[in-house]
């Protein structure tokens, strides 16, 4: 894939719940900001939204709430497109080097086709104002379709240090074809790994990359520091770059995050 002028490069995270993909999304924001590869737009597209907590910002409204209100609260004389675009721009949380928007809970009963279409159009327009777009996804990656994100530069597929986690990661990676998404690279990261990786796990990881189009990014060891930060509700942006988890994550990002001119 090639850099498209005036359009953000899309970097997406995917993985089953509990693998730490939101943690890695926060570390990816930290990486891009520290390397001055800004501005960055982060989208929390996981129904269990907590990327804002790891980034140390508060959320006042979600895109899901705006989408719900659009159906009943659009005032006379304003189109639904205008209503959605105005409120989505108001929902953007602006920070130094990065902005954040939160998708929120999935749709309730009723048809949301129009709202999702408008949402996709607004995101497409927003991408022209940023260098990178980071999407923290749910495992099924349905939000990629809702946002009409058809071109992903790097998809980081995050597994935990288990056979089931690696198997799930391979299944998630295969979903991109059925969604019609073009991906430059699919990178497998095994997170929360023990210091000494068991041979059986390492063998399964090698087989997963040999049999699929996944590229192995690396192991990231279980981090007591990250655990402490999350328990104390401290933003991961405050982690020292000298910490093991940051160094390892940054080494992976150095290899698989292309520099956007």
UniProtKB/TrEMBL annotation:
What cellular component terms from Gene Ontology apply here? cytoplasmic side of plasma membrane; cytosol
User: So which domain of life are we looking at?
Assistant: Bacteria
Domain CobQ/CobB/MinD/ParA nucleotide binding positions: 12-235
Any one GO MF term held by the record is:
ATP hydrolysis activity
Question: Which BP terms does GO give this entry?
Answer: negative regulation of cell division
Residue ranges the record marks as coiled coil = none
Pfam families reported in the protein's UniProt record? CbiA
Matching entries from InterPro entries are given as: CobQ/CobB/MinD/ParA_Nub-bd_dom, CooC, P-loop_NTPase, ParA/MinD_ATPase
Q: What's the name of the protein?
A: CO dehydrogenase accessory protein CooC (Nickel insertion)
Q: Which species?
A: Dissulfuribacter thermophilus
Which taxonomic lineage does the organism of this UniProt entry have?
Bacteria, Pseudomonadati, Thermodesulfobacteriota, Dissulfuribacteria, Dissulfuribacterales
